[in-house]
Amino acid sequence: MLINNKIIKNKSNFLFYDYETFGLNPSIDRIAQFACVRTNINFDIIEKPIILYCKIPIDYFPNPESIIIHNISPQIVNTKGILECNLAKKINKIFSKYNTCIVGYNNIAFDDEFSRNLFYRNFYDPYNWYWKNNNSRWDILNLVRACCVLRPDGLNWPKINNIPVFNLEKIANINNIKLYYKSHDALSDVYATIAIAKLIKKKQLSLFNYFFKNRQKKEILKIIHLSNIKPLIYISSVYKNSNNNIGCIVPLFWSFKNKNILITFDLINDINRFINLNWQKNILNNNFLIYIKFININNSPLLLPINILKSNDIKRLNFNLIYYQKNFLNFKKYFLKIKNIIFSCLIKFYNNNMNYDINNVDTQLYKNFFGYSDLQNFKKLHKTPINKLKQFIFNDYRANELLFRYRARNFPEILNDLEKNKWNLYIKNIFNKNYILNYINQIEILLNKYKNCEEQKTILNDLLKYFKIIIKKNKI
Question: Residues 211, 213, 219, CA angle at the centre, nearest 5°?
Fold first, then answer.
């Protein structure tokens, strides 16, 4: 039901959103469908839902397995959809309303990464949408996980082999959340997420309020004390459902590559074994990574003081509190040595590992932050006629290459002959003979796998037809 509740600057609200995508890599793959619903703090819907589709750029093909999941073909998005530059504009505007908490289900690990890369490719600040205008973000999957671990009463929990699973559809169904539910449909997922958040707030209000308050960096920092180290409970998927998603860590130091990442030692590990390892040898194969956890405090991590666990929680979770307490005492004896070993290991690790392709600017979001002058020019770019976009020259080389791709993907008609030749060479290079043969082979394997499933066969044949048309059009 839509509540007539006009959003004003001092009125907090939730913006629930979800993407269906053509793959899992946020820097390479593209968004197929976006859906969102805005609610007040009581989860009453205050705006009509929004659904948007995005046209596929000419230099990209969907991962064939993705369309099997959501049944959104290239033909659908190219008929119903808008250009990616316009999708970015609309979503950025939706996200930027005052006092909005932007929330989804697994959004921090998945959807938010697609949002960042969408804004990066289309000249919007990749980060300010979730802090500017008193905005924030949260993830209901984290809330669900915390509820299951700490206060499971009041909800039914789907299980496989007696181990809880956090699949959105399964949780909705087992808790009798009566919605029109179409699996892997963005709007259906949004409505299910709202209903689950509402249920947890009703059944476990104290837990809901605690984690809602502690979603923000300033609150999380209050329990992290590097000068007076204390063990902390860490609830995370890194510990797996079979281990009740819970562990015990000790903060070490802030990453020198990203001051929002806390480097911690995992107290499940044997301290004496760590100390006695030959680190001159082990540093080369990154063995130190099993001993630490990277915790990004901008991602609303579930960190709690160890004394929050009640005796019945400790028993139910099979949480070995005595082991962790003894291990922490041993850890304190060697704190400086452990800290120095891990610091040295991280220096070599960061020097040897890059999270982006040096030859593909689309993957280089995390190489650096854009400077102030470039960000100001991004704003000017969106007010500039498309035939004058070429005039922009940025300090950051990434933005200059992105601008060429932005123009070619969204407005190919404005390219001059030299630019058209450059773009055509780029297309032929990425869609080379090996790529074409491999892509067709992927589709044929799936067609054989789903030979008795008419729906899957139809959409795969649609994809194959689209692929051949684009390849022929580009004379590849």
Answer: 105
The domain in which residue 453 lies consists of 433-473
Q: Tell me the residue type at 364.
A: Q
State yes or no: pLDDT of 304 exceeds 70: yes
Please report the pLDDT score of residue 253 as a whole number. Answer: 96
Question: For residues 310 and 314, what is the distance between their CA atoms, to the nearest angstrom?
Answer: 6
Q: Give yes or no for a contact between 428 and 22, defined as CB atoms under 8 angstroms apart.
A: no
Alpha helices (runs of H) in 229-289, residue ranges in sequence order: 271-276, 279-282
Report which DSSP code applies to 317. Answer: T
Is-contact 19 69, C-beta < 8 A?
no
- Assess whether 279 and 246 both reside in one domain: yes
Select from 79, 15, 17, 82 the least CA-distant residue to 52: 82
Q: Which structure tokens are listed for 184?
A: 């892997």
Q: Is residue 5 part of a domain?
A: no
pLDDT value for 7: 46
Give the C-alpha separation, 16 to 35, whole Å.
8
- Contacts of residue 406, defined as CB under 8 A and 6 or more positions apart, other chains included, come to 85, 121, 122, 123, 389
DSSP state of 137: E
Residue 408 within a domain: yes
Counting every residue written for the chain, the total comes to 476
Q: Helix or strand or coil: residue 20?
A: strand
Q: How many domains does the chain have?
A: 4
pLDDT tens for 96-152 read 999 999 999 999 999 999 999 999 999 999 999 999 999 999 999 999 999 999 999
User: Which H or E element spans position 465?
Assistant: helix 454-473
Model pTM above 0.90: yes
Do 256 and 176 share a domain, yes or no? no
Q: Please give the order of strands across the beta sheet that includes 261-266.
A: 292-296, 261-266, 246-254, 232-235, 302-305
Are 231 and 200 contained in the same domain? no
User: Are residues 281 and 228 part of one domain?
Assistant: yes
Which residue is listed with tokens 């697994």?
106
